[in-house]
Amino acid sequence: MEPSHNGQFEFFDDPINVLEGTALELSAAAGFDVSRSGILFVARQSTVKQRTTFKHNVYYITKSSLTRLGIQKPSALIVAGLEGASSSPVFSPDGQSAAFLQKPKGLYEDDKSKIVLVPNIDVVPITTEVVASIEGKGSWALSPDGYMVEGRESKMLSSANSNGAPFGLHSSQVEEVHYQGAEDHEIHAWVIKPSDFVAGKKYPLLYAIHGGPSNAWIDIWWDGTWNLAVFAEQGYVVFAPNITGSTGFGEEFAKRAYND
Fold this sequence. Notes:
Helix content: under 10%
Distance between the termini: 50 Å
Structural class: mainly beta
Number of strands: 15
Number of helices: 2
Strand content: 25-35%
């Protein structure tokens, strides 16, 4: 497989299943990356029950090992002290180093992700946690994969589908509201209306609760997973609150649902 002139990769032979003969299950949603050095991907051991842990590791397989004569098993990039889910692996432009995110614990999805650097991927990969701290919380207050709401206004930076315009959707269908929740905590919520919404007309309400609870409704209202616009276009007004335990509103708020 080599990059073509337009930046896409082309296959010059039949694809090889690098997971064949392993007990690994690919976590495609967590990300992968390809370079001239090899492949980085996130996977978990199929022998581990997912109900008891969210642990996923980043694995690396060299390009030179991708031959039918003898495919080497993928190597796990282990980080001392980090036992949670990994995500977002990426090579440096020259393919010689790499970075990814990993959470400290395997039981909670809302732990703050840590940035991990692999300075030289081909020389017995050594992983280093960036901005680490002695107590283990990290010296950076933010979570690199978190969704944050600052203030009461949002701004769209880009849209792959012109904000749904080809399908008759528009950003004016969506509003943000805030209200006081349990123990007087401020709760953020989205309101998604039908594209032909008429002010003053009564509509049935659809109350959408996200799972997790370590998750959040973010500003993606018509994606392929939880497409709230599909419900709105059936004539509902959709109310999607980021309830207590949601991520993106501070670690303390996210952990308030523990053992509840």
